[in-house]
Specification:
This protein is mostly helical. Helix content is 58%, strand content 0%. Helix 1 packs across helix 5, helix 2 (38-52) packs antiparallel against helix 3 and helix 3 runs antiparallel to helix 5 (93-102). The radius of gyration is 13 Å and the shape is globular.
């Protein structure tokens, strides 16, 4: 249950204009003013993961594991959905949850 909640929180944060867009125009659902490159997606996922991590001492390593896994496991269509909507596609969500668990990413619940 906690893992599902953690994954859901990360999904919400990923699409939240206040966190994901970092002050960019809310007209673009991904927070960019252009379709983000894979490197921009990786950087944004890493930043969000580290910012919400419960274990700050291990966040860089664990979030790096998570982000590398996301970029490897998502299909081209799932990555395109993330790029254009700022959300993980429904088909990607089990992969994301599994990666959070295997990389031991825990979200700060405060």
């Amino acid at each position: 249950m906690v893992r599902c909640l953690s994954a859901f929180i990360l999904f919400v944060l990923l699409s939240s204009p206040s966190v994901y867009a970092a002050g960019r125009s809310p007209d673009y659902p991904t927070g960019f003013d252009h379709p983000p490159s894979n490197d921009e997606i990786k950087t944004r996922l890493q930043d969000i993961c580290v910012n919400v991590s419960a274990d700050k001492a291990r966040a860089q390593r664990r979030c790096g594991c998570y982000v590398r896994g996301v970029m490897k496991k998502l299909t081209a269509d799932e990555l395109e959905a993330l790029r254009t909507t700022g959300h993980f596609a429904e088909s990607a969500q089990p992969k994301v949850r599994a990666l959070m668990a295997s990389c031991k990413v825990q979200i700060d619940q405060q």
